[in-house]
Design a protein that fits this description.
Layout lengths: L9 H14 L36 E9 L2 E9 L9 E7 L6 H8 L1 H8 L2 E5 L4 H5 L16 H5 L4 H13 L4 E11 L1 H12 L7 E4 L16 E6 L24 H11 L6 E7 L2 E6 L9 E6 L21 H10 L5
């Protein structure tokens, strides 16, 4: 795995900025066919489903594409062992970090293995890069339009929310998904984007679990309470635990702290009860806002003291703590929180 591409480290961002400056990508207007970002107008709950007929996809890993916004958009899907094409099945969307890929996200999270054990469909979308958006530039710049972050997708105002709409619609024609159990998570830039989906697609996304990324929309108003489980290391050198302005050098925007990102959703979710510790082991502690409306719409922050820009539970990348398995904790969180 090309580990350097998984992090949105400051050094990587500066190198990308230099590349942009040398070829003028950062000043090049987006292609006229590039769509505007998705808005709340598309935030419509899908019809409920009790069974599926006529679907033929069997368990396995597939690489599929869908046309959206003038681009061919790619995504990887792992259909779990034991999948029944007649029964609605939960879906977990997992968005890679800046400069990474869907294959690397699959390896980082271990979701395909967990999907086989737990019976959900794991989906790994692929972000666009400079060549796909502008026709030139560095290829290792794939990412998402997380509003405050990052890279060409954010600079060009790519309609990644629209891509998720198209992906889910296409997925429904191939596998039997449960519309009330579609969840999202992401790493770094992918975490910013998962927050964006909670803000703009609350009727489609039941709950989110961002890792090492913040809410990037200054005016986030979900159409319903969205449960959040946020993971972040206090020594993150790329997306600072206490918030920052380091992304502005590459066209990004200032972003809030991890605690403020979670607090905003706690407020939006009507959480008026006391904060409660829900997990503690070694350097990892999770605390949840309670008294939410509904009660399941908790907003939780899992802090890894001394943790870097990493995925908890994955020690082979940036020293991810062994004290907290983010992927497993996410799934347990999601299981208890289908969309009402």
């Amino acid at each position: 795995m090309r580990l350097r591409l998984l992090a949105l480290a400051a050094s990587s961002l500066l190198l990308t900025a230099t590349a942009c400056g040398s070829t003028d990508e950062s000043n090049t207007p987006p292609d006229e066919e590039t769509d505007l970002p998705g808005t709340s107008a598309g935030d419509v709950p899908p019809a409920d489903r009790t069974a599926c007929l006529g679907l033929t996809v069997t368990p396995g890993t597939y690489d599929w594409t869908v046309e959206q916004g003038g681009h061919t958009r790619a995504f990887r899907v792992h259909v779990p062992t034991g999948y029944d094409a007649t029964k609605p099945t939960p879906v977990v969307l997992s968005f890679h970090g800046f400069g990474s890929t869907e294959q690397e996200q699959e390896a980082l999270t271990g979701f395909s293995t967990l999907a086989d054990a737990e019976g959900f469909i794991a989906v790994y979308p692929r972000g666009l890069n400079f060549p796909e958006i502008y026709g030139r530039g560095e290829a290792d710049t794939r990412g998402w339009n997380g509003e405050a972050c990052c890279g060409p997708a954010q600079i060009a105002n790519v309609d990644d929310v629209g891509f998720v709409d198209a992906l889910l619609a296409d997925l429904d024609t191939r596998v039997c998904t449960d519309p009330r159990r579609v969840f999202a998570n992401g790493f770094s830039n992918g975490a910013f984007f998962s927050y964006r989906l909670a803000c703009e697609r609350a009727q489609r996304i039941a709950a989110i679990a961002p890792v090492a990324g913040m809410v990037g929309l200054p005016d986030c108003r979900p159409s319903r309470p969205v449960p959040v489980l946020h993971f972040h290391g206090t020594a993150d050198e790329s997306i600072y635990y206490d918030g920052g302005e380091n992304l502005t050098v590459v066209g990004g925007r200032p972003y809030p702290s991890a605690s403020e990102s979670v607090r905003r959703f706690a407020e939006s979710n009507g959480c008026t009860g006391p904060q409660q510790q829900t997990y503690q082991q070694g350097n990892s502690t999770c605390v949840a806002y309670t008294g939410c409306k509904p009660e399941s719409a908790t907003a939780s922050l899992c802090t890894v003291t001394g943790g870097k820009h990493a995925w908890p539970g994955q020690p082979f990348y940036n020293g991810g703590t062994p004290d907290l398995d983010a992927s497993l904790q996410m799934w347990r969180f999601f299981q208890a929180r289908p969309r009402p």
